[in-house]
Design a protein that fits this description.
single chain, about 140 residues, mainly beta, five-stranded mixed β-barrel, 5 strands, globular
Length: about 140
């Protein structure tokens, strides 16, 4: 089994570890086991799909199509139904311009969304005496 993991990049949002971005999905070979994460922007369960669920996740670079088979849906039902942000590990399938992930593991990582609302840490000067009072500032 081959697991493809991206090189870490510096971002200022709470990226789950070892996830490929949507714009990197053409890099791994077909049938590689990968992990993706993003906001759930679409859930579909067509009556003609025999219990298959289709999800679309969005990250900062694009969208990822996910296929969830009925048996897996029963195992991860709560995450599939209620998750606002998911991390999905599965097999990459690509045929022509169509790329999707066949889900194997589904994790609800919605609590990471709260970190987006957290205030950024304030940078302070190394020496407190270097801080300028409002009347000392020029500009």
């Amino acid at each position: 089994m081959r697991v493809v993991t991206p090189r870490p990049t510096q971002t200022n949002w709470p990226r789950p570890p070892s996830c490929l971005r949507a714009d990197q999905l053409r890099v791994p070979p077909d049938n590689a086991r990968i992990t993706v994460a993003g906001l759930v922007i679409l859930r579909q369960r067509p009556g003609t799909a025999k219990g298959v669920i289709f999800l679309t996740l969005e990250d900062e670079t694009g969208t990822v199509n996910i296929i969830v088979w009925r048996k897996l849906y029963e195992r991860y039902r709560r995450a599939v139904i209620a998750g606002r942000m998911l991390r999905i590990t599965g097999r990459l399938q690509s045929e022509g311009d169509v790329i999707h992930v066949i889900a194997e593991v589904i994790e609800d990582i919605s609590p990471l969304l709260d970190q987006l609302l957290a205030p950024a840490p304030e940078s302070s000067p190394a020496d407190p005496s270097e801080a300028l009072s409002p009347d000392q500032q020029t500009g």
